[in-house]
Amino acid sequence: MNLRQKRGQETKRRIIETAIALFHERGFNNVTVDEIVAVTNTSKGAFYNHFTSKHEVFAEQFKQIDQFYVEHLVPRLDADQSIMERLILFLELQMTYIQDELGWDVTRTIYEQELSTERSSYFLDPDRPLYDILIGLCQEGIEKGEFKAGYSAHDIVTVLIHGMRGVLYNWSLNRGKISLVNEQRMVFRALLDGLRA
Prior knowledge:
By secondary structure, this protein is mostly helical. It has 9 helices and no strands.
C-alpha cells in the first residue's frame, strides 16, 4: 500500500469513527454530511470518494462490528467451557458492546437502513463473520451432544439470529429505556433451554 492509499484509508477510518460517534451522540437524522466533514477536517469530495451517503457508513460499521466480535469477543471464550456456556457469554458480551458502544439510536437506524429495498441487506450476507462464529460454536455443540437431536448448526444459528434481531428491535422500539443486556439474558436463556439436549 502506497502513501496515498494509506492516507485514503486513514481518512475513511476517521470519517467512520466520527460519523458513528456523532450518530450515537445526536441521533442519525440530526447529523449531516457537512457536519461529518467539518469535524473530520476533510472535504465533501473525500467523503463521497469513500461513501455515496451517510447511510453507507453503516455498511462499513457492520464490518467493523463483526471484526470486533472476531478480535475481542471470541478470544474471551474459554475452550474448557461447554458450548452453551460459551454461547451465553458471547451473547452477553455482544449485547453489552451494542448497548454501551453503539446505543439504541444507532441500532434503530441500522435496522431502518437494512429495510431499504434499494440495496441488499448485510444482515443476510452468509459470509458475515458473526455467522461463522455462531456456526462454528453450534457445530461443535452438536458434535458434543449439547443440542437436541434433529437440529443442524444452521437451524440453531437461525434461531439465535432471529432472537438477536427481536431483542435489538424491541430495545430500539423502547428507545433504550430498557436494559438490552437484561432482555437478552431472558430471551436467550429461553431459546437455549429449548435447544439444550
